[in-house]
């Protein structure tokens, strides 16, 4: 790594900085949710959309952008993405209402999708196969560094300068990445191709995903279940379109003919579906039930992503030597154990016990993510790296979104239009416990797919 070329160093720097930004904002905003709720007078479901809108937008755009980047070049898409992301982040910091903030988070999610789906292919294209696990581990570590810094810095900023300062702090970093991308990042030119994007498949996918997610927060209303059914039908039409299209945005054959790729992506989907809402739920729990300030809650929540940050590079490095399946499966099993521990959380649970469980979760996720990503990117041909990265990122974001959907559904059933600050503490704790119980059961299913994927080498 000490003998990296200028191209390799630039690619790693840009990818790492960009991978830090999105997760930092996600975890930082999670800590600020009670403050946002207070300023904009949002109910529990509306508050969850501050997070869900960003994830939904990212998920909608990841697949078509992955295909577009394979055709027109990873660098060009990456450059456009970081510009959109930085502008949207700036506007989020001055949003005048909750609705405007949610809409701006949609735009921010678009920019994030453009950088997420191109960052890993840029890295893999400039580093030899023997070093992929290591650099992807560093890239994943930067994600976790953002997650770990977000709660602490977000809590500190929210308590002393207001929640808007979290977005405004990211502006200089976004501008720095833009400058590096345009003046330092050198990649191979895009290959000339006449391949076109399947617009019909894109429409089915986008409409289906939006419909399913929106219906999940309205299942207690008359139109909720019919809307969910319509979303499922649209997703079935999307799969059928992918099978018959000459240029599908989602390579079904990668799942039907490549078990290693398929099961690794399914494992990632399940892992994120089970674990992502943890910070969202624990942020609310620590501030509402335990009575902590945003800064105190953020300091406690640092434990999980900090362990991820430390462990991920080592796990990525070891996955170049040890079969990744073994490391990832161990990580998934540990995550499931941590979630079941959290299912017994309550007002009397001591802080040290919460920190211990968060550390357990950090170990589990740190062992899983880098080896799993190494397997995904190493199981396809070089010409498929863009769609593989887009698929992997889609699994991650859709998983995160499913996790938030579960939390939102439980909140809508328990609290309906009630504000979280007004909800009964016992009822709120019951909702938190149910969320973690469901998440633990989901994670157990992921252990099977992770262990059954087959060996990379």
Structure in words:
The protein is built from 17 helices and no strands. With 457 residues, the protein is mainly alpha-helical. It starts with 5 loop residues before the first helix and ends in a 6-residue tail after the last helix. The model has no long low-confidence stretch (mean pLDDT 85). The radius of gyration is 21 Å and the shape is globular. It has 2 domains: 6-186 and 249-451, Growth Hormone, Chain: A (Up-down Bundle), CATH 1.20.1250; 198-248. α13 (303-318) runs parallel beside α15 (351-378), α14 packs antiparallel against α17 and α16 packs antiparallel against α17 (425-451). The longest helix has 35 residues, at 6-40. Helix content is 80%, strand content 0%.
Give a quick summary of the entry.
With 457 residues, the chain is mainly α. It is built from 17 helices and no strands.
